[in-house]
Amino acid sequence: MFVKITTSGDRRYVQLVESYRDDAGRVKKRTVATLGRLDQLGGELDSVINGLLKVSGRQPASGISSTPAITFESARALGDVWTLTELWNSLGFSELRRVFRRTRHAIDVEALIRVMVFNRLCDPDSKLGVLRWLETVALPQVDSKSITHQQLLRAMDALVDHAGAVDAAVAALLRPMIDQDLSVVFYDLTTIRTEGLSAEAHDVRQFGMAKEGVIARQFMLGVVQTAEGLPIYHEVFDGNAAETKTLLPTLRTVLARFPSVRRLILVADRGLLSLDNLAALNDVRLSNGQALEFILAVPGRRYSEFADLLAPFHRTECRAATQEVIGELAWNGLRLVVAHDPVRAAEQTGRRNERIDALVAQADQWAGKLDGQDAGAKHRGRKLSDSGAKARFFHAVSEAHLSQIIKVNLKTDLFSYDIDARAHKLAQMMDGKLLLVTNASDLDAPRIVACYKSLADIERGFRVLKSELEIGPVYHRLPERIRAHAAICFMALILHRVMRWRLQAAGTGLSPDRALDTLRRIQHHRVRLDAAQPVTGVSSISAEQAKVLGALNVRKPVASEQLALL
Q1: Separation between Cα atoms, residue 292 and residue 315, nearest integer Å
Q2: Fewest CB atoms less than 10 Å from the CB: which of 80, 93, 172, 225?
Q3: Start-to-end Cα distance in the chain
């Protein structure tokens, strides 16, 4: 153990630091206690030095008076986990304790789930990493010393065993936060990477196309969110599941969980539209008999089906437009809302034409080389063949997503291609356009477009899951453990969103992560004087920290009896 001086801004602090070895045998350092600011210690520091000399059997330096020996037994982060505990209890998550009363596992499942949820928000790590994290925090209402890795896994198993009751309890605490008269909900899916090559029965880890555009072993996570950004439901699907087949099962579950909602408008992205979905969605009814309303984006691959319908609108409204144009057409008994952005259209057209010009230049170069070879000309490098030129050009066209416009003739012996002028003109007409299909009769076209563009908020929720909460990659092997991991991350996302709401409402300008980082510096200390009983206390709370606590509607931390065991 040694003394270390750390600097924060223009202030210097004195800390007691010790070295230790982690599970891998690497030497690391951790702070045992912060003694205070160097410029404010004065005689207190002399007292500590004197006490240490006495304990070691040495004589105190002259002029230093005899003082009690001070032992700093622990200094752990308190403010962040205290805040999360207060939010957990006030929102009603503590009701999960009733769900797990009759679990087959002789452990406090609710407390263990709470520990894993808080870890996702404070310092996301593996389940073994959770144990290391517990050594650094003063978690209220939890005896962290008795928690084992096996207990965390058993708690995850219990979470899946009681999934129905857990989902019902979470839905109950969410209902007061949902608008019962009109709820606009957003549904989207994302892919979560997994590791490991083992095969399990009913494995959700499947190879599929990830959002990054690569084939990966993954599972799919569907999330339903309100217009305010509150996540209300999640579901785990196989990694190769078709997006269109996930919508209806998820929707029916949401309607069953929130039967008091009197009107529901579903907003979903392009990958979820199919004729089968539209027919089935028209048949869905709420508990009060009200028809489900929806706003669905038309996927780009289907834009050609609307060419004849859109041509007059494009000619009269879009060609000369200098700002966004929003119009409406009728399609298959539904409303087709069209939004045209001329700036975006020009950008898309320009980038496509650049790619086409580059590919045509390359093709002309190869054609010239082939003609020269046929005429007996010699060129440096490897000889080019017609079949090789066709293969390379076809690959380049496919990579540029221009195979509908540039047609490579694969049936002839000679290298040749054509530009499909009609397809090129159609692509230019569709540039800058957003096509939405809806059955909502009382919302005007601009409101329909605005509702759809709010879907970006659910994508921010996915970014939180993947970055701040670090939901993936997932190293769990069993499908049940993967579902439990997703449920833990979902609960963490709810807490994250509630914190975000309150911080924004208070005008703090802080993200939940910045707020937790600020509160993390509130510490719980345990100090012993000579042989007396240890004394516990909480470090001073700064004005900034008090402001964050006030914004989150959380009382200031205190050294309660529940923390005295540390």
Answers
A1: 34
A2: 172
A3: 20
Token look-up 């144990």 returns 131
Q: Which residues contact 197 (CB under 8 A, 6 or more apart)?
A: 217
Between CA 514 and CA 516 the distance in angstroms is: 6
pLDDT (tens digit per residue) in 509-539: 999 999 999 999 999 888 877 777 777 888 8
Give phi and psi for 397, each to the nearest 5: -65, -45
Quick one: what percent of the chain has pLDDT higher than 70?
A: 90
Chain centre distance of CA 484: 16
What is d(CA 520, CA 260) in angstroms, rounded to the nearest whole number? 39
Q: Which helix (H) or strand (E) holds 93?
A: none
Give the separation between CA 449 and CA 181, rounded to whole angstroms.
21
Burial 1-37 (b: 16+ CB within 10 A, else e): eeeeeeeeeeeebbbbeeeeeeeeeeeeeebbbbbbe
Exposure string of 206-216, with b = 16+ CB inside 10 Å and e = fewer, is bebebeeeeeb
Distance, in Å, from the CA atom of 189 to the CA atom of 459, rounded to the nearest integer, reads: 9
- Token pair of 269 as six digits: 């992205």
One-letter amino acid for residue 175 of the chain: R
Per DSSP, 324 falls in state -
Predicted model pTM: 0.77
420: helix, strand or coil: coil
User: Where exactly are the structural domains of the chain?
Assistant: 2-78+522-563, 79-269+455-521, 343-430
Q: Give burial (CB, 10 Å; 0-12/13-18/19+) of 309.
A: middle
Any residues with CB less than 8 A from the CB of 358 and at least 6 apart, and which? none
Q: Report whether 171 contacts 258 (CB < 8 A).
A: yes
Composition of the chain by helix, strand, coil, percent to 5: 45, 20, 30
Pair of tokens at residue 243: 């997006």
Residue 388 phi, psi dihedral angles, 5° rounding: -65, -40
How far, in Å, CA of 140 to CA of 193, rounded? 33
Residue with tokens 């505990």: 85
The string of DSSP letters for 397-413 reads HHHTT-TTTEEE--SSS
d(CA 133, CA 141): 16
Strand partners, 219: 192, 238
Closest CA to 550 of 518, 528, 524: 518
CB-side exposure of 537: number of CA atoms within 13 Å? 10
pLDDT in tens, 238-261: 988 887 888 888 888 998 999 888
Average pLDDT of the residues in 143-161: 93
Q: Residue 473, preceding bond cis, omega within 30 degrees?
A: yes
Q: Which residues of 426-440 are buried (b: 16+ CB within 10 A; e: fewer)?
A: bbebbbbbbbbbbbb
Q: Which residues lie closer than 8 Å to 43 by C-beta, 6 or more apart?
A: none
| Nearest in space to 538 (alpha carbons), one of 135, 11, 82 | 82
Contacts of 508 (CB under 8 A, 6+ apart): 515, 547, 548, 551
Residue for token pair 């509130």: 522
Q: Which helix (H) or strand (E) holds 515?
A: helix 512-519
Buried b (16+ CB within 10 A) or exposed e, 265-288: bbbbbebbbbeebbeebeebebee
